[in-house]
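Hallway conversation turned thread

IA: we were arguing at lunch whether anyone had actually written out Bacterial Ig-like domain (Group 2) end to end. Turns out nobody had. So, for the record, here is the sequence (414 residues) and right after it the structure tokens. Reply here if something looks off.
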Amino acid sequence: MKKSKFTLVIVLGLVLCLLCGTTTTFSWFNRPDVQKGDSLSWSGDYNVTNGKNITAVTYVATKDDGSEYSTDPFNFSGLTTVSAHETKYFCTEVKNTGNAPQSISLFLNNSETNKLSVGVNSPLRTYKRFTSDSQTSYVSKTQCNVNKKNVYVGFVTADSLPENLKADRNSLNPGDYFLHSWNGQGAVEAGVNNSFLKSDVEYTLATPGYSNFKANYDISYCTIPYNYNNVKMYKKNTVGGKEWCEGSDNTNVDTYNTVLWFHWDNKFRTVYEQTKVNGELAKAAGISSFYSNAEAVVGKTFDLSAKAQGTVTYTSSKTDVATVDGKGQVIAKKAGKTTVTVTSTGAYGDKITAKCELTVSKEPAKSSYIPIVTNMKIEGKTDSDPVVTKVYWYIKNDTASSAAYSLGDVQISL
């Protein structure tokens, strides 16, 4: 009895090996990328030639049960609606006019829904849900570190000085002064801009020790890294050395972002005040980060807002390609290229800008290469007549609502 069972197992194993070697096999793994050229290399014992003798034509069923088919090739370019629980049947005729057998695969291209299923009735019965194998997010952005902000520097006007100092103030050059700025990682030296943004700005000091001292100042600025929060001003002397201005270090420049150079007790000193315009607190221009480039598809709305201070505005160089609102929200309108610019404007009109190159493309397929059959063997012809193999397959809506689909042509992979 045991010997009979052992013999039966051996016989069944031989039959299984024979079936695997002689029948068409199917695979639902993702299709490998298409290689350029006339042939595609396969691993294993596939029948592969250059594919020049293979053609395929697809027909749609004229009866709901798929028993009869049209004689006109089906046009996949249009949008088709499949009602709830309805099935659309197709027949793809694959013709080999060459003498050599070949292994082919058929794929649907460019599905735009995941509410449908694709199945095969012949040569074998298979069934699979439409699923997107595309990892495209449809929006990509490359962030960049702008890391710039302005600090205002006010020089007391000559009218606010005693007579013996007026001449020195009138000959003052703002570009001779520098801000030494630092944070936990390092220090940077930056020169004060050599021109004034605004003249005769009145400040009444609030700093302890100088409270209620009122004077007018000509306002310039200095650009330092956005993430630096400590500054101290100095002047370069004739031999290139640093003459540090009287006064303490400013360790909170984000709050006290105006450095005032003024005269007190027969000395020129620096003090730090909050920027005020018409009595209201204000900021200088500054941009911490933005994007250097971005890509999106038509119809997408996405965020390109910058981390910035001051009054922040956005513009698009080509509004027919993409528009952007005051909060940095972009709408991609048509394929093309545009430049999105963010501008930070400070309390005294100073500006810092950054640009992002945006490329808008047509929307890609949400899914590509849905397999119908894979690695199907097509025999070569033995006489003058080509070998024709028919694949009967269908698209089914197995949901409770209608679903529209648009498909590319049936693709042949060799």
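OS: looked through it. The radius of gyration is 38 Å.
IA: good, adding that to the notes. The domain at 139-143+285-361 is CATH 2.60.40.10 (Immunoglobulin-like).
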